[in-house]
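Appendix B, record 7
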Amino acid sequence: MKKISIIILFLATTLVGYTQKEPKAKSILDKVSSKTKSYKTIKSNFSYNMENLQDGVNETFEGTVFVKGNKFKILLMGTETYSNGKNRWVYMPDEEEVNLYEVEKKDRKNKNQDDDVLSNPRDLFNIYNKGFKYKYISEVVENGKILYLIELVPRNKKKNFFKIKVKVDKAKYQLYSIKYFSKDGSRYTIKIKNFKPNVKMQDSIFTFDTKAHPKVEVVDMRE
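Structure tokens (predicted):
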């Protein structure tokens, strides 16, 4: 099964220079979070880059995410992930198989282990409030856009990553990119290509339709 894990990382690091509520960084991140929470739905196309120079890996995949409250759907790396807030389906068309999880138990089981930001994609816009120290670094220019660069460091040393770099569009206060740094030398970058709020979405798109896929094997991972 292809594991779509955006955070897989970790390494002890010095926290000097970081504070839990560094004023400028917090102000920027609060604005991004507040603006995102005001949307009823979000549809976004994004790129997902995996890089490890030591292993000669540098791959980029295109994806799409749909979010409505605690519901979401993700299309990435040939895999379709659905979550209606109660159950999560990970559908692998090439294998004609779908794994079914209970959201709360799966998330609780993975707590403090390999964090998966896509357990709820909306967390991408609110991640800084979950056990991080952070600081504002500078303004940078990328693709003609002026961006705020902010670094986050997890307080929990048992995590699998040691740093996250967040770039925020200064003009729109929208997330531009988020990059995770792994202790194994891997780097994982999500870059928002377009962002469409308040798109009409039916609740049915967040549930895997077994009737429409009668030949697909359902593997029930629920306890």
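Remarks on this record: The helical segments are 23-37, 103-109. The radius of gyration is 18 Å.
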